[in-house]
Automatic annotation (TrEMBL):
Chief site of localization: membrane
Ranges that cross the membrane: 17-38, 277-301, 322-347, 367-393, 434-463, 641-666, 694-721, 733-754
Annotated localization: Cell membrane
ABC3 transporter permease C-terminal domain boundaries: 281-398, 645-759
Protein name, as recorded: FtsX-like permease family protein
Membrane topology value: Multi-pass membrane protein
Keywords: Cell membrane, Membrane, Transmembrane, Transmembrane helix
Pfam families for this protein: FtsX
Transmembrane keyword on record: yes
Top-level division of the source organism's lineage: Bacteria
InterPro entries assigned: ABC3_permease_C, Membrane_comp_ABC_pdt
Species of origin: Exiguobacterium aestuarii
């Protein structure tokens, strides 16, 4: 009989229970989906990285010779002819190059005697596939460290074979045995992965991650050497001892442990932070659900105090009365958690595939785990049992006489007292309106946390709008040129071409940067600041990119020291270019040319901007501006999808919380609402007094949440900049406040629509009915 009565009571609250069910399902779904999705790449990744002997650290080194190395007569001779980069020396005299690299490895091993060091040799190329420009990073096969891993097929055995990434092949309809043109025909022998490139990052532009237009490549050593491309080098190392990250060697730019390198170590952060975030989000969401359920049960029990008191008076004990409430609530929660678990299992594979769209990793079929099931279902269920049991135990603990007697008015809580002091000169109607919403501290706390969580997600999504575009293409949208080309010689400059000079070996505050010399009157690549104003190059000044300025805290007018060829030059910053694709400092080309040639010439250049595609015979590397822009579309689509997920999830949680709380408020105050109608208040006034106070509190909560959201995002930006050297160009605009408040307003009125209708339907006779009882 008791179970039937409680079931009947709960069934009348099906709409509130449905909203609570959404929150409970989201809790279990979030944890299950993220845990299984991440585990689907974690297990095979650990095996793959161990089998391929992934580097423990990487040493970025100068790709030019140092002053100390110039003491070698052979190296000095080559440098005297203009061959001072490692690539130039290797191409001219490989024996000298090998001796130079061996000496560098010996120097490192003297500092880290327990480490094994190996050269990492790679080339970047561009080629046309299907009328679109594609990029490839050719990695030379290693002996012991960062060995290639073949997912399918085989490694190249002949000079006309190549292995590439499986995801790239899928995106372009390439199968093993097909032929692709990389400047000359190659047959695809297999699909390959490299442990030091779990993210396909080929340059300083951290967000050029389009798996459909760029790939890692493996060739035979002979094909690697004969392929024309921009060649670079670094040192890879493995050790069981502590990595020395502050090597004081002339050729060392930086020493970074793998876990802090975004191209290879980001996957570790993704896995660890993903699991932590899954558990954290799940606990946060289920905590909201548990507290709302506690409020629901508390309201139900308060409404039935008389009946419970009567049951105790005729001999029912606390356990007998409490069991139906607790059992039915737990059964409800159990089935919702089960539904969430299987929904999470269903969405885990799409989440895993989303990771594999960007991370170059092997994967396995997702298998269920009893531990995940227990964590996703029974851990929240235990939480429910404890909280619901505590609420029921407390109310059931009162004596039969106390339950049968009317409850005394509860004294004001601290929040009510604070609001009361703020409204001490307000009318009685206004005091009633705004004090009623804060009568329950627990309810208001859940209300505020729901608005806070939703606001943070909405603000973050809005600030991400355009951020990836600024990082991937930067000033390319403002540029006029169509092609960017690099040369090793000095071909004649034709109409529609403007030369530039780059020097990627300068230092600012011990940070490696690229100096770029542009013509003062250049028109194809104009520099603009954040406001869109054109910046003018000056012989005695420097323009820096926004990413460099943010990393080093640079400002216009500040003097900075640049280390260039063992010299230190001081320049004032005359402008900050709105450019996030790399760490650049801009000078007039004539100035940079004189610095690099010791005043011998002011006409050096190693690249051009052009309106028409230049001759391939004159320029070894040719990049299409439009091609670079198109390569960023994939990551932009991904980020737009994530923005929609963030906003959708935030809206669903906020809607459910607001709906349940306002519905419970109406149900809890039937007598008050009826009394207000008897006293002559119109329906609109009653709705305003009972619900509209929540509207003001929602707006205030959203406004208070915005600075908290900005502070949280600032911490995220600092962590990324310090750990990975990655600047997230998140921009906050004042219009975002309007958008956020607009979203909160929309959610509020949608969630309270049914509650407003219920207020209108409460009859005046309710007060007389309650009075008679």
């Amino acid at each position: 009989m008791l179970y039937k009565n409680v079931w009947k009571t709960l069934s009348k609250k099906w709409m509130q229970l449905l909203a609570i069910a959404i929150i409970i399902v989201m809790s279990s779904l979030t944890y299950t989906m993220m845990f299984y999705g991440i585990s689907g790449i974690e297990v095979p990744t650990e095996e793959y990285l161990e089998e391929s002997n992934q580097e423990d650290f990487a040493i970025e080194m100068l790709n030019r010779v140092t002053e100390e190395e110039l003491r070698d007569p052979d190296i000095a001779t080559l440098a005297g002819t203009g061959m001072f980069t490692l690539a130039d020396i290797k191409q001219t005299d490989e024996d000298v190059f090998n001796r130079l690299i061996a000496s560098r490895i010996d120097a490192v091993e003297r500092e880290m005697p327990e480490a094994t060091i190996e050269l990492r040799d790679f080339k970047t190329i561009t080629y046309t596939l299907g009328d679109a420009e594609h990029r490839g990073l050719i990695l030379k096969e290693s002996d012991t460290i960062n060995r290639s891993y073949v997912e399918a097929g085989s490694r190249p055995n002949t000079n006309d074979e190549v292995a590439l990434n499986k995801k790239y092949a899928e995106e372009n309809g390439i199968e093993i045995g097909d032929t692709i043109d990389l400047g000359r025909p190659f047959t695809v022998s297999g699909f390959v992965l490299f442990p030091d490139y779990t993210l396909p990052l080929f340059d300083d532009n951290f967000f050029n991650l389009d798996p459909g237009s760029q790939t890692l490549l493996l060739m035979t050593d002979e094909s690697f050497e004969s392929t024309v491309g921009q060649e670079s080098f670094r040192l890879s190392g493995v050790t069981e001892q502590t990595v020395v990250t502050d090597l004081e060697l002339p050729f060392v730019v930086s020493v970074m442990e793998t876990e802090n390198i975004i191209r290879s170590g980001a996957i570790y952060s993704e896995i660890s932070s993903g699991k932590a975030m899954a558990l954290g989000l799940s606990l946060f969401i289920v905590s909201i659900a548990v507290i709302i359920v506690a409020i629901l049960i508390s309201n139900m029990l308060e409404a039935e105090r008389g009946q419970i008191g009567l049951l105790k008076a005729i001999g029912y004990n606390r356990r007998q009365i409490a069991a139906p409430y607790l059992v039915l609530i737990l059964i409800f929660a159990f089935f919702m958690l089960i539904i969430g678990y299987f929904l999470g299992l269903y969405f885990a594979d799409p989440l895993k595939q989303l990771y594999l769209d960007f991370y170059l990793l092997p994967s396995i079929t997702i298998a269920q785990s009893p531990l995940v099931f227990l964590t996703a279902v029974f851990a929240p269920l235990l939480f429910f049992a404890l909280v619901a049991g505590a609420v029921i135990y407390k109310i059931m603990g009162e004596s039969a006489l106390a339950l049968l007697s009317p409850r005394d008015n509860v004294s004001l809580n601290r929040l009510s007292r604070f609001v009361s002091r703020l409204l001490k000169r307000a009318s009685g109607k206004t005091k009633f309106k705004y004090l009623y919403a804060v009568k329950s501290t627990g309810s208001f706390l859940i209300f505020f946390l729901g608005i806070l969580f939703s606001t943070i997600l909405i603000v973050f999504a809005l600030m991400m709008n355009g951020a990836v575009d600024r990082m991937t293409v930067g000033g390319l949208n403002e540029a006029v040129y169509e092609y960017e080309a690099y040369t090793d010689g000095s071909p004649p400059i034709e109409d529609g071409q403007e030369p530039f000079l780059t020097y990627p070996f300068a230092f600012v505050e011990e940070k490696l940067i690229t100096l770029k010399g542009l013509d003062i009157d250049n028109t194809l690549f104009p520099l603009r600041n954040e406001e869109g104003d054109t910046l003018t190059l000056e012989p005695d000044g420097l323009i820096v990119s926004s990413s460099l300025a943010l990393k080093l805290g640079l400002e216009v007018g500040q003097d900075i020291d640049i280390e260039l060829n063992e010299e230190t030059l001081t320049y004032p910053i005359t402008g900050i270019a709105d450019e996030f694709s790399g760490d650049f400092a801009y000078l007039p080309r004539t100035t940079l040319s004189e610095l690099l040639s010791d005043g011998m010439t002011d006409d050096l250049f190693n690249g051009i901007y052009a309106m028409e595609r230049p001759d391939d015979s004159d320029y070894t590397t040719i990049l299409s501006r439009q091609g670079l822009i198109e390569q960023s579309e994939s990551i932009n689509q991904y980020m737009n999808f994530m923005m929609n997920v963030l906003i959708g999830g935030a809206s669903l949680i906020a809607f459910s919380i607001l709906f349940v709380l306002t519905a419970l408020t109406v149900e809890k105050n039937y007598y008050v609402i009826s009394l207000l109608k008897v006293m002559g208040y119109q329906k609109r006034e009653v709705r305003s007094m009972i619900l509209n106070s929540y509207f003001i509190y929602a707006l205030v909560s959203a406004l208070l949440s915005i600075p908290i959201a900005l502070l949280t995002l600032r911490v995220i930006i600092v962590v990324f900049a310090e750990d990975y050297g990655l600047v997230l160009p998140l921009e906050f605009e004042w219009i975002y406040i309007v958008y956020t408040l607009g979203a909160v307003v929309l959610l509020f009125f949608l969630s309270t629509f049914i509650s407003r209708r219920k207020i209108d339907q409460i009859p005046l006779q309710e007060v007389l009915k309650t009075y008679q009882e």
